[in-house]
Amino acid sequence: MIQIDDLGLRYATARGAIDALSGVTLTIGRGEFVSIVGPSGCGKSTLLSVLGGLLRPTAGRVLIGGEPVTDPSPRLGFAFQDPVLLPAQLRFGGVARHRERARSLLEMVGLKGFESNYPKELSGGMRQRVAIARALLLDPEVLLMDEPFGALDAITRERMGYELLRIWQGSGKTVVFVTHGISEAVFLSDRVIAMSARPGRVIDDRRIELPRPRTPTSQEDPRFLEAARILRGLLMGPEDAVQAQQPAERQPRSAASSRVPT
After folding, report:
1. Does residue 60 come out as left (phi exceeding 0), alpha (psi in the -120 to 50 range) or beta?
2. Mean per-residue pLDDT over the chain, rounded
3. Which of 15, 115, 174, 207 has the fewest CB atoms nearer than 10 Å to its CB?
4. For the residues of 86-120, what is the DSSP string, one character each?
5. Under a CB-based contact definition with an 8 Å cutoff, are residues 83 and 128 in contact?
6. How many CB atoms lie within 10 A of CB 120?
């Protein structure tokens, strides 16, 4: 579905050129849920913007469905950390013909009955669900998500993770999901792509061998723990990764321990 060949992007700044991405090569299959993780400033969001046609690469190419990406397209849906609830995507077609699909999507994301509410009347989690429904409005082939739950509290973020998996499994879309949460990435994804510090390069492409549907007990599966351990070691260093795991290991099991770590 997505083919990225030797992708590079260089920014020109007053202090000289900055390489944000270098030599990024990977493929993503149709219907896959793929997360991208890496340190701050490694180019995760830049890569997503290139995939969406919002930025032009300075080297390499991106193909979606075999066609080069040059500009934003209705084949691509976007969901960002800030929901920005404006009907920008409706520029691709008339409002009237999308009304029925919009109602159906609002019901799918659990917001039936809130069709006439203003964004200020919705909670953070509800606004993010509207943003996901909006991204799906034109039935895109690919859903690009840049830290969509980053501004939510931990409980709402956990709930939205399960909600996203339910929507994804029902829609069959290809999802590319940027997050800082290693455990969140492992829990949600078919594959996790780890990127190096700037300039961003792919340093690991890890398939997550966990059965679906994912449940809270998936986090106790040795395959989940091993994947998270390896990714933490790659991105944080072995000593930092061990320290990051110690508080959770010392805590007794409780209701809180069944939540998706972020």
Report:
1. left
2. 84
3. 15
4. --GGGGGS-SGGGHHHHHHHHHHTT-TT-TT--GG
5. yes
6. 7
Burial of 12 (0-12, 13-18, 19+ CB in 10 A): exposed
- SS3 for 20? strand
Provide the token pair at 97.
Answer: 């013909």
Residue 91 per-residue DSSP state: G
* pLDDT at position 238 over 60: no
pLDDT band at 108 (very low <50, low <70, confident <90, very high): confident
157 burial (CB, 10 Å; 0-12 / 13-18 / 19+) is buried
Q: With helix as H, strand as E and coil as C, how does 163-221 read?
A: HHHHHHHHHCCEEEEECCCHHHHHHHCCEEEEECCCCECEEEEEECCCCCCCCHHHHHC
Give me the pLDDT at residue 245, please.
Answer: 54
Question: Tokens standing for 235?
Answer: 């991105």
Q: Which of 28-42, 159-173, 185-199 comes out lowest in average pLDDT?
A: 159-173
SS3 assignment, position 45: helix
Amino acid, single-letter form, for residue 23: G
Nearest to 180 by CA among 165, 201, 195, 199: 195
* Residue where the block lists tokens 């390069």: 201
Which candidate, 147, 148, 161, places its Cα nearest to that of 219?
161
Hey, CA dihedral for 98, 99, 100, 106, is it positive or negative?
A: positive
